[in-house]
Design goal:
homodimer, DNA-binding, Arc Repressor Mutant, subunit A, 11 strands, about 250 residues, elongated, Chorismate lyase
Chain lengths: ~250, ~250
DNA sequence: GAGTGGTCTAGACCACGGT
DNA sequence: CCGTGGTCTAGACCACTCG
């Protein structure tokens, strides 16, 4: 009682109670114990389960909500966040047109095959070189004209039997598929934007002149546990569209 | 009881106590009542002043801290945030090199004059067309080679007698100057990134071939009250550098 | 009306930073 | 040692949603 430091780890491992509760709840969501769309127990039930006060649970829940893992609604309850198409687009699709409107993209898959991870791909996706990866290419149109040519890589092991219909409009965003089919929630992404000259392939796909300047957006998407799930390289027309970022 | 909507204002004007306290404290910072670097009264003093409990003040302070307007330090006190060069760069300079290192830019002003806002500039800076603006051009080097050519516009009225030394290394970031000389704290910025082909001017400034693809970053920077303070158009080499964004 | 999250208060104790 | 912010608890009351 008078000395909690007899465990030397305590000094470095110390986490406030609410942070511990937050970690416990987060784990139950990450493991699929509570699934997207589920309502989780109320604050008093959780407080009782973890033997803390309701205020401590509340602080944990507010922190989890800030990470968009849960949605809390007064009078209703607390729910595990679900990736809707709107949500996926709102959080992860950053292109705006020159009038500051957010266009809604339509997507059409062009090809799907399996490749073994090169050194470069392996490094980015944090897997061993040679790991089998799906390689999907697709076209995305903004305002009814082709604007983005995209290559997507994701480990086969994470998404057994992933099948994308080729040549048809995709109904769901990839992240909705990951969540609904495999229980993988994309929670974070890191993007790097470069300016490049359109290759012959880009020019053909986007119906533009070769060497037109394009935005190349390289994105690593990670799940709730920060595990890399997808590498996506998007080449975007930049004549009518811009990549948008807000710094706060 | 059955109808709280008889006063239409009540529905829209209602703010929780902590939000009102937050607004009051924020205003005192925005007006310069408390200046960057100042220590503000402790939670109990504020609670007493505003006739609320210390817990309510705390919630307001946590919210203000989340907006990076204040810094709270255990055992020390709560301080109004100050723009250091490190802070300005960390929050507003988003370029990384191809090895994911953040290069530290050096800047050299090329010119400073006054222009009257065109329709386009006026719209972006939210001022009347014709409003006098400073127009500053500068070169920025990353890792000792010229990498960014930048045009900066800011209303003369906001920064009377702004003088930038031409042709010399700039010691301070622009945002440090705005804060220290004029008490204007840049708190938000909105960026739009495009890919463009280098103009003859860009090519000369950046010592690259004409028509090389460049990143063009257009930024509107705003103060604590969301008033537009600066428009900045940066053209960046994209061969060794990338624009970085994290989506959470 | 019952149940949920949201706000607010009050007070205890801890951890940190300086005197 | 004192004063600061940080954590935690306990309980009251409010606002929203739904049956």
């Amino acid at each position: 009682m008078d000395n909690d430091q007899d465990d030397p780890a305590a000094a470095t491992d110390y986490q406030p109670l609410y942070a511990q509760v937050k970690a416990l709840i987060t784990r139950r969501i990450a493991t699929g114990d509570w699934k997207p769309g589920d309502m989780i127990p109320n604050e008093f039930q959780l407080a009782n389960e973890y033997n803390v006060s309701q205020g401590t649970v509340r602080k944990a829940l507010i922190a989890i909500e800030a990470e968009r893992l849960i949605v809390r609604r007064q009078g209703r309850g607390t729910y595990v966040a679900r990736h809707t198409r709107e949500h996926a687009l709102f959080h992860f699709f950053r292109m705006v047109d020159i009038n500051e409107q957010r266009p809604v993209p339509t997507s059409q898959a062009l090809s799907q095959n399996i490749v073994n991870a090169s050194q470069e791909l392996a490094k980015q996706l944090e897997v061993e070189p040679g790991t089998p990866l799906y390689h999907i290419t697709r076209n995305r149109s903004l305002k009814a004209s082709p604007a983005i040519y995209e290559r997507i890589y994701t480990p086969v092991q994470m998404m057994p039997d992933l099948q994308i219909e080729i040549g048809k409009q995709m109904v769901d965003e990839m992240y909705v598929i990951y969540q609904e089919r495999y229980g993988i929630t994309i929670a974070h992404a890191s993007e790097r934007v470069a300016a490049i000259a359109a290759s012959a392939e880009d020019a053909r796909q986007l119906k533009i002149a070769k060497a037109t300047p394009l935005l190349e957006i390289t994105r690593i998407a990670r799940d709730v546990s920060k595990v890399a799930v997808e590498l996506r390289i998007s080449r975007c027309r930049s004549d009518e569209f811009r990549y948008a970022a807000e710094l706060n």
